Amino acid sequence: MKLRDRLGISERRQRQATRGTQLALVAFTAVGVLTWNVAVTVNAAAALAVTHLPAVLERDYSIPMDAGLTLWITTAVFLHVLGTLGVPGVTDQFYGPNPPIWWDHLTHFLSSTVVAAAGYATVRALDEHHDDVAFPPKFTFVFVVLFVMALGVLWEILEYAAWTLGDLVGATVLTIYGVDDVTLDLAFNTIGAVVVGVWGTAYLGDVTDAIRANIEDAAGE
After folding, report:
1. How far apart are CA 110 and CA 78, in angstroms?
2. How far apart (Å, rounded) are the C-alpha atoms in residues 221 and 219?
3. pTM confidence score
4. Using CA atoms, how far apart are residues 91 and 74, in angstroms rounded to an integer?
5. CA 58 to CA 186: how far, in whole Å?
6. Do 197 and 145 form a contact (C-beta atoms < 8 A)?
7. Which of 27, 48, 132, 210 is a good FRET partner for 20, with 20 to 30 A between their CA atoms?
8. Is 32:40 a contact under the CB 8 Å cutoff?
9. Per-residue buried b or exposed e for 32-57, using 16+ beta carbons within 10 Å of the residue's own CB
10. What is the pLDDT of residues 96-129, one digit of tens each?
């Protein structure tokens, strides 16, 4: 089943939504530059680059990225950037030590599902490609969860390093709000991984097949 079918929204509407978020990210980048806001500029520019990744994967590696998957990835990075804007009365508390800190956990959840999907599709492709390799469904599920948890820990370390460096140079890009915040981030990462581990087979079959085909081409089979 295509993700777009599950969303219940036409492919055309999903592509329009993706284009709209990309245009918004362009505007966010411009706002960051004009206001000398390093955090907004860096985050928005990086997110804009990520939104073009599905097109690159489809064009260069023939990995089918339907409108639903593309919108999924785009939404995850767009919401992250939206939380960095700090629009008074609108998003000034989306990322911060006070409620609603849930915004940070929402973005971690969405981002973790994207990472988990990449890990899941790759493992399934390797499983289907090699006859002498067999990954039981329970192993794949556990691997995806551990994979996301490991990357989540790595991200928190990099986030802390970026926060420390930014504090030294006076240009903070990412911010940490204590151990409790980090713990909750990791918990929501795990929830995202569990969601993909449970439903990955239903929505990532085409991506898995394409990755397997690329592995076979690289191996000369």
Report:
1. 11
2. 6
3. 0.81
4. 19
5. 31
6. yes
7. 210
8. yes
9. beeeebbbbbbbbbebbebbeebeeb
10. 555 456 777 788 889 999 988 888 888 888 777 6
